[in-house]
Amino acid sequence: MKTESGRADYRKVQKTGGDSFVVSLPKTWVNDVGLKPKDPVAVMVQPDSSLLIVPRRDIRAASKSEATLEAQGLDKDFLLRHFISYYLAGYDTIRLTLGRGDSSLRGFIREGIRRKLVGVEIIEESSGAILTQCLSGYVELPLKKAFERMAIIAGGMLSDAVAVLQGGGKSLAEEVIERDDEVDRFYHFLLRQLNIAVRDRSVIQEIGLSSTRDCLGYRLAVKSAERVADHAVGIATQAENLLMISEGSAKKVQEMTVLSRKVFDMSISALLRLDVKLAEDAIAKTKEVVQLEGKLSGEILAPRMNGGQAASVKLMLESIRRVAEYGSDIAEIAIDLTVAEPQYV
Fold first, then answer.
1. At a CB cut-off of 8 Å and minimum separation 6, what does 163 contact?
2. What is the CATH number of the domain that holds 181?
């Protein structure tokens, strides 16, 4: 009997002696996944007490996914974005065919891979092609640990971006901007893991999560953390235009930044620990940051500032406030994930 995906195929539980119980597997499913007698399968208990049965991952280890990307006629930035899309989709190997063998294009792609992606190795290269292998990294760098490291870098970028106002100068601003590449590397790596887990539910527990709902929550949280780093870059850029700001004004901006980063750090901890109290505290502090932005906008803007300086102040304060709001979004995700999923009877 052929069973359609999503339709229930009811089978009786049989007792085989002693305390053992068995249930037969649908023949069509067994054939589709390529199982043979005595092949092992993984049986995992789900949060709703159902069972998930999947072929062991080593059964499919020989089956590798490969994508080929034609570079001819493509802009180099578009080509790199296309390559990253295949990486995020979870392909094991990605082959780039470069046509005429443009050496500058090969160099651009190599540098882009190095700056933007984790776990990608160039295993073959010729004048007309590049073959890359994407490593999973589940064991070496678990999802939650990678997310925590990403958040630490983003938080440090925020603090250093505002320090530009207090004598850090152009060199510190440039360092903040460069660190955004490291955040992007973790961002793409985490999205790849989550995309693979959604497609292959046996991976969910391997990366340290419990359900597809967790994957969705972390997908949103990872994006929020990536946006925090982007705002830190914006703050550093605007701060370069305000190096003549008064010491008192710089100190006020610093105080607002400390509060905003505290919201972000608390939210990250709340998600990793699923701590509702900490999440609620972070959300409450976000309101303080919003109020402080309105207050400082009036205090810092001075008549002697030109239009460009005034715009930089407003953009910088707005970015600091947005960091807290992204933290609040992460805190809300933490609260959402503490609620048990409904069980249907």
1. 172, 254
2. 1.20.58.220
Indicate whether 230 and 192 sit together in one domain. Answer: yes
The pLDDT value given to residue 37: 84
Q: Whole-structure pTM over 0.90, yes or no? A: no
Residue 329 and residue 201 share a domain: yes
Domain that holds residue 50: 25-59
Alpha helices for the chain (secondary structure H): 27-33, 76-89, 103-116, 143-163, 169-199, 202-206, 212-240, 247-273, 276-300, 307-338
Confidence (pLDDT) at 61: 47
Cα angle for residues 265, 269, 139 (degrees, 5° grid): 115
**Computed over its alpha carbons, how large is the radius of gyration of the chain?**
25
One domain, residues 100 and 182: no
Instruction: Give dist(CA 58, CA 206) in Å, integer.
Output: 13
**Averaged pLDDT in 10-residue chunks for the chain of 345 residues:** 57 76 83 80 68 61 76 85 94 86 81 92 87 77 93 96 80 92 96 90 83 94 98 91 76 93 98 97 97 87 70 91 98 95 69
Long-range contacts of residues 48-51, Cβ cutoff 8 Å, at least 24 apart:
48/341, 48/343, 49/343
Q: Among 59, 78, 112, which residue terminates a domain?
A: 59
Q: So what's the pLDDT on residue 58?
A: 46
- The answer to whether position 19 is within a domain reads no
Same domain, 299 and 180: yes
Residue 136 confidence (pLDDT):
66
Cα separation, 151 vs 229, in Å, equals: 9
Closest by alpha carbon to 219, among 257, 177, 191, 200? 191
In a domain, 158, yes or no: yes
CA-CA distance, 32 to 41, in Å (whole number)? 14
Across-strand partners of 94? 67, 132
116 φ/ψ angles, rounded to the nearest 5 degrees: -105, -15
DSSP, collapsed to helix, strand or coil, labels residue 25 as coil
Residue 2 counted as domain residue: no
Write phi, then psi, for 27 (nearest 5 degrees).
-60, -40
Asked if 218 and 140 count as a contact pair (C-beta separation under 8 A), the reply is: no
